[in-house]
Amino acid sequence: MKTFRLISMQIADHDSLTDIAFKEGLIINKEDDQGTWLIEAFVEKEFIPVFEEACKENKDIVTQVIITKKENDPATFKTKVCSVRAINDHACVLLRGKLTRLRSDYPAQLLEYLMEQGFTDGELVTEFRKNLIARPRLVLPKKV
Q: N or C: more exposed end of the chain, with fewer CB within 10 A?
């Protein structure tokens, strides 16, 4: 098994990503035959109902995380909530899932996003370079 520090976490719902505020978190690659990963986060109280509902309904949650360093590409997992334990104004949430994409296409998504924002030519290149380092979270409109 390998354990990594969780830097950021989002859950996807249709065309949007919701940032999940948490105090601490880790992600574990179990390195088993099924490709199982565990995500554990000490989340803020406002997110408890989201995870409790998903646990109760045994619902899949698409979770996007950044591991170890802010500069890393996001990794996307298809997860299920294993447990939600309330602790004062927070909750310890445990998710189990599988990596859905081995390689991120973040640069292509960023370029598409910046073009949709109207950047062109040198302005596009400048914004692309700046944002490739900053790694803002992107929500692209669904293609029809």
A: C
